[in-house]
Give the backbone structure.
Amino acid sequence: MRWDTKSAFRRSNDRSERTEPRPVTSPLGPYGDRVLVTSRSFEEYVAFFDLDDEALGGRILDCAAGASGFAATLAARGGQVTAVDSAYTDAPVLLEQAALARADGDAMIDSNDHRFVWDWYGCHEHRRTLRASALDAFTADFARSPGRYLPGRLAELPFIDGTFDLALCSHLLFTWSDVLDEQWHERALRELLRVATEVRVFPLVLKGTGAPVSFLPALVDALRGEGHTVDVVPVPYEFQVDTHDMLRLRRRRARWPVRSDPHRRRPKRRREDSEGDPRRADRGGPAGPVGRDVHRAH
């Protein structure tokens, strides 16, 4: 879909929330040429993130999408999807990097062959076919619908708060934890939770070796401490040995509903508005909106 900032605009009941898109200041971001630009397929994404029809029916952000064919395929099926990557500022370089990444990725797998299982793919050739088809789908859609692919970076995304129902992050967070430190991961996850109601991240181990990420438990605890729901959830995909979990995060709920005026104070409950007051009953009974705690998910 072509991005429309007017339709995405909404007011906020929190002064700290943003109501205007953030400008992209440094498209190459903090990782730039240190991270492979890969071309994963729609079928792989469905398995990575255990996506069902309900999840695919929402407003989806793919970040950082690289040359993935996910957005192209989902859009062709009528889905609402936006892809973001720092590499989208230079299409020729992006496609060149994607082609090189296929060879680099295969070399990484070959050098750690004992750490991979092939049950999901079946064979090396099927994996290569999926990746080649995904790159073809991306290349065609990138040329046909450039508004679907926006330059941006973690942890500063060019979207207003709550723009998406679901944000997906494949093979960046935790995968490159030897390049991107704990503080960067913390900022990145908070930024994804700012723009999306739910976030799913896969995988949760270091690239190549499949080593666990030492700071993941502390990061989960910190986000839970802020009121977010954070779970490690099994998915129907395994390639690196014993790597079949994703991180699912749901943004904490607001205490009060969104009001038209974000700076207007919540009215105090009046004594005459208590249950049994005939004046309240005349207006629909005691279950009126004043003085009740209302919870609403952003």
Q: What stands out?
A: The beta strands are 59-63, 80-84, 149-150, 164-170, 196-202, 229-234, 245-250. The longest helix spans residues 91-111.
